[in-house]
Write a structure and sequence with these properties.
Elements: E1 5-9, H1 13-28, H2 33-53, E2 57-66, E3 69-78, H3 86-89, H4 103-110, E4 113-117, E5 124-131, E6 142-149, E7 159-166, E8 169-177, H5 181-197, H6 203-213, E9 220-228, E10 233-239, E11 243-248, E12 251-255, E13 272-275, E14 281-285, H7 306-317, E15 324-331
Antiparallel strand pairs: 1-2, 2-3, 3-5, 4-5, 6-15, 7-8, 8-9, 9-10, 10-13, 11-12, 11-14, 14-15
Helix pairs in contact: 1-2, 2-4, 5-6
Length: 334
């Protein structure tokens, strides 16, 4: 599932919408009744917490699939006061709102993967993944997080993304179809299809192939990164308004893209190498995400699961007037 289902939670009826969305994804993945019920419980508790403790917020749902394994991912995002004592808040029976205090603890127990980022004064971001039988894949060369949400009011998202794993690492694509709506979605999804057909081509070759294959569409901006975790290098090529950044502690390396639109005007395609050291995080985003974010404003965030990083950046820097995609990739397990 390339796109995220975004559910605003401002009133109690929207808790049910989040629960139904999670159950529907679980059922679509072929999960059994027990796992569907767990997905619904996680969504109910997370959305209820948004209302009780965060002043409302947003739930993002998507299917996560790796090879033959699949699961449901939920991000719950608010701009509340954060959590003063995370360890204590995860214990059943603890609450700052006069309730039973079972929400976070229940979510953690029901989840295959659970992560939380809630510094005081910066809101709370919660990640839950519930994987089907067999659990979370343990042999992935990279761990991926992504948010891909349509422009408010649009039913189709003009952005798309894909990560194709291989033994050495992964090939990462972010595409932004020209404009919004179904025709933009057609262009970006065609870019994904073309990349998936030959995923091991070098980034520069990928973009040239996408350019030739997108003439019948509106065209799109796109960037491709080839991550080699074993060698500690990354090859990158971008055309148009896709940003790429490699982050490691205090270091921030901006990846170069050139102006143009694949499928229409002949773009300058340049492939450049970058260092991708152990522990580094690659973040790629469409122009629906503002560029003013600074990792130093979020102590400890870069060490969290890539999905949590993508969710926090979306929450705080989505422009709100465009499709938005954020993809975060780290070598090895999250």
């Amino acid at each position: 599932m390339l796109h995220s289902q975004a559910i605003t939670v401002r009133e109690s009826s929207q808790v049910g919408e989040a629960r139904r969305g999670a159950v529907l994804i679980a059922a679509g993945l072929g999960m059994n009744a027990e796992l569907q019920a767990r997905a619904g419980l996680i969504a109910t508790e997370a959305a209820t917490n948004l209302l009780r403790h965060g002043g409302g917020g947003e739930v993002l749902l998507r299917a996560v699939e790796t090879g033959s394994q699949a699961g449901v991912e939920l991000l719950a995002l608010d701009r509340g006061s954060g959590i003063a004592d995370v360890a204590r808040s995860l214990r059943d029976g603890y609450s700052t709102a006069g309730t039973a205090g079972e929400g976070l603890g229940a979510i953690q127990r029901q989840s295959t993967v659970f992560d939380l980022y809630a510094p005081m004064g910066q809101g709370t971001a919660l990640l839950s993944q519930l994987w089907a039988e067999g659990g979370e894949p343990s042999d992935r060369p990279v761990v991926v997080g992504a948010v891909c949400v349509a422009k408010p009011g649009e039913s189709a998202c003009g952005d798309a993304w894909w990560v194709e794993c291989h033994p050495e690492g992964a090939t990462v694509l972010v595409a932004d179809g020209l404009g919004h709506g179904p025709q933009a979605a057609t262009a970006s999804l065609e870019a994904v299809r073309l990349l998936r057909a030959q995923p091991r081509l070098a980034p520069g070759e990928q973009l040239r192939r996408l350019h030739a294959g997108l003439h019948a569409t509106r065209g799109c901006a796109a960037a491709v990164a080839a991550v080699d975790v074993r060698a500690g290098v990354l090859q990158y090529s971008g055309v148009g308004n896709i940003t790429g950044t490699v982050l490691l502690e205090a270091q921030r390396t901006h990846l170069v893209s050139h102006n143009g639109t694949l499928g229409h005007d002949t773009p300058l395609v340049q492939e450049l190498p970058y260092v991708y050291p152990e522990g580094a995080l690659l973040v790629m985003a469409s122009d629906g995400l503002g560029t003013q974010w600074r990792p130093e404003r979020y102590p400890g965030l870069l060490a969290r699961h890539p999905s949590l990083v993508a969710g926090v950046l979306y929450r705080d820097f989505a422009r709100g007037r465009d499709d938005v995609t954020v993809v975060a990739v780290r070598g090895g397990r999250g």
